[in-house]
Write a structure and sequence with these properties.
The chain has 160 residues and is an alpha/beta fold. The protein has 6 helices and 7 strands; from the N terminus they run H-H-E-H-E-H-E-E-E-E-H-E-H. The protein has one domain: Rossmann fold, CATH 3.40.50.720. The strands form 2 sheets. The protein has a 5-stranded parallel beta sheet with strand order 2-1-3-4-7. Strands 5-6 form a two-stranded antiparallel ribbon. Strand 1, helix 3 and strand 2 form a beta-alpha-beta unit.
Length: 160
Amino acid sequence: ANAGALMVGQPEFKPCTPYGCMKLLESIDYPIRGARAVIVGASNIVGKPMAMLLLQAGATVTICNSKTRDLAHHTKDADILVVATGKPKMITGDMVKHGAVVIDVGINRLPDGKLCGDVDFDAAQYVAGWITPVPGGVGPMTITMLLMNTLEAAEKAAKL
């Protein structure tokens, strides 16, 4: 996706992972307009595009990064918490606002071979109102959005 076009709200194609996250929010009928969204991870692949899509949907967005002071202060304030850091179980249950929607984009392999996200699912699931599992949450949505973009590109090419 073209970052400049995304910034002005006119992307030809939406970035797959953030687009998948937005579709997840849509699937649960979450009222994004007016919600406080916090994104942990400021990558060009997930964090920044996710912020743009949430802003365009009417959320108030805060982007946190590895240098953010008192990260828990920000995450506990989030109605929507999107985490994409590549650090296993970085976000603990006590860092999540009660009832928040938590979207865990991370996928990490632990020393014992098990997969986990950037959120400690076992702790956060009791606090969050809704949370994506890892594996099986955002990953399949990313693939689905890639297929949607591919289909859209084929349709545009066929009209040439």
